């Protein structure tokens, strides 16, 4: 009996990845136009980030507040998922924000800060705001 272990060819063969077009619908992740945004806070009321939207470019996204740390980054997944779901339902970006306001639950781990719907002159300005706090 040989002491050599036989290595399966599945473990040594080259992998071939084929690019697949399509996938779930997504909002554009960039715009240079003004954006509407919501302030998102954690259960303690600390700002963790912003959900933003621009209908003209069919753009929307989540901007984390870096000072919020890992928790803010992780909670952002919830808000990004809400945007993906809204796009799949065919909602315009600002309609997605309206749904988030209506469905926000203050007892959840993160929620929309009451009365926070605002406008920034650009996505860059919103990102700067997030970085300053």
Descriptive overview:
The protein has one domain. The chain has three helices and five strands. It has helices at residues 69-88, 93-103, 123-132; strands at residues 35-42, 47-54, 59-64, 110-112, 118-120. Strands 1, 2, 3, 4 and 5 form a five-stranded antiparallel beta sheet that branches. Helix 1 crosses helix 2 (93-103). The protein starts with 34 loop residues before the first strand and ends with a helix.
Summed over residues and divided by their number, the pLDDT gives a mean of 91
Specify the structural class.
alpha+beta
Low-confidence stretches: none
What summary fits the major beta sheet?
A: 5 strands, antiparallel
| Ends apart, CA distance between termini | 68 Å
Summarize the structure.
The protein has 133 residues and is α+β, with helices and mostly antiparallel strands. 31% of the residues lie in helices and 21% in strands.
Task: Please write out the topology.
Layout: E1 35-42, E2 47-54, E3 59-64, H1 69-88, H2 93-103, E4 110-112, E5 118-120, H3 123-132
Antiparallel strand pairs: 1-2, 1-4, 1-5, 2-3
Helix pairs in contact: 1-2
Structure keywords:
133 residues, alpha+beta, 5-stranded antiparallel sheet, 3 helices, 5 strands
């Amino acid at each position: 009996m040989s002491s050599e272990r036989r290595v399966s060819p599945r473990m040594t063969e080259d992998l071939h990845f084929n690019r697949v077009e399509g996938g779930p619908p997504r909002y554009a992740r960039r715009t240079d136009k003004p954006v509407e945004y919501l302030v998102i806070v954690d259960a303690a009321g600390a700002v963790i980030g912003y959900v933003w939207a621009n209908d003209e470019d069919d753009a929307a996204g989540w901007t984390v507040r870096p000072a919020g740390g890992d928790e803010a980054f992780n909670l952002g997944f919830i808000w990004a998922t809400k945007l993906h779901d809204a796009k799949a339902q065919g909602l315009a970006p600002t309609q997605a924000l309206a749904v988030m306001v209506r469905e926000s639950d203050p007892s959840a781990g993160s929620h929309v800060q009451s009365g926070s719907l605002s406008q920034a002159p650009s996505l860059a300005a919103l990102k700067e705001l997030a970085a300053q706090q």
